Amino acid sequence: MRLLFLGDVVGRAGRTAVTNRLPDLVERWSLDFVVVNGENAAGGFGITEEITQELLDAGADVVTTGNHVWDQREALVFIERQPRLLRPVNYPRGTPGRGANLFIGRNGARVLVINAMGRVFMDSLDDPFAGVAAEVAACPLGEQADAVIVDFHAETTSEKQAMGHFLDGRVSLVVGTHTHTPTADHRILPEGTGFMTDVGMCGDYDSVIGMEKDEPLGRFLRKIPSGRFAPALGDATLSGVAVEIDDRTGKATKIGPVRLGGALSQAEPAFWDAA
Ligand SMILES: [Fe+2]
Ligand SMILES: [Fe+2]
């Protein structure tokens, strides 16, 4: 099974990269399943129902989120009628929406997707390790699920790597999101789980984590806000990770970075031949 995971879509530049490039990639790489983190898709802050649909129409099967999930208040309402939009599973009981769901891939595989949020240097939710473990136990890989994908939305590299090792052998893929900067440590862990500390963002990298440079730079220099954060609108890089998952075991067999367009060095999975 061929899976593509794309990092946080930031503003219009990120959305344009996804809508322009993803339909072709789904076809060219014969993708069976696509997950896109959409927490910054609406002007850098949150996601609307219309934008969720835009990402799904472009080829996403599931849209995950993170700490910005409720920035657009309408998300609190429409998430209840959109099973393909996930929020972190470790929000308190009673929070709208869901943090995990089982989907069917284009190849007929049963794909469990889980979204969780870290606690180090972030708003501290419930224990993400226990939260993810409960979802995996309820729908185990090789039994009720043919593949299990975890988006761990967290600030620190250490917490994300700990989650990768915690789940090694029990899920197909653990990817970190939230820092908007891709790491070069994509690999398959010893027990067969694909892992990457952070997949980066789909956005304009000529920026400070996707935002126009002046305001964030000014706040570092003067410690006084002088305006609002606005997403950078230059040419965006589509940033994510491509993973081949064994249909029989649900473990990852190949993993490679994806960086297309914009300011970053370009990368494509060499193991999926372009037609
Ligand atoms: Fe983000
Ligand atoms: Fe985030």
Number of domains: 1
Number of strands: 11
CATH class: Alpha Beta
Question: What are the segments in which pLDDT stays under 50 over at least 5 consecutive residues?
Answer: none
Task: Please summarize the sheet with the most strands.
Answer: 6 strands, mixed
Proportion in β-strands: 15-25%
Strand order in space, largest sheet:
4-5-6-7-9-8
Secondary-structure-derived class: alpha/beta
Mean pLDDT: 97
The end-to-end distance, rounded to whole angstroms, is 17 Å
Encode the helix/strand succession as letters. EHEHEHEEHEHEEEHEE
Tell me the CATH superfamily: Metallo-dependent phosphatases
What are the distinct ligands in this entry? Answer: fe (ii) ion
From the spread of the alpha carbons, the general shape counts as globular
CATH architecture verdict: 4-Layer Sandwich
Family: Belongs to the YmdB-like family.
Binding site for Fe cation 1: 8, 39-40, 180
GO molecular function: 2',3'-cyclic-nucleotide 3'-phosphodiesterase activity; metal ion binding
Binding site for Fe cation 2: 39, 67, 153, 178
Give descriptors for this structure.
275 residues, alpha/beta, Purple Acid Phosphatase, chain A, domain 2, six-stranded mixed sheet, five-stranded mixed sheet, 11 strands, globular, binds fe (ii) ion
In short:
This protein has 275 residues and is an alpha/beta fold. It has helices spanning 11-28, 49-58, 75-78, 128-138, 157-167, 214-222, and strands at 2-6, 33-37, 62-64, 100-104, 110-117, 147-153, 173-177, 187-188, 194-196, 238-245, 252-260.
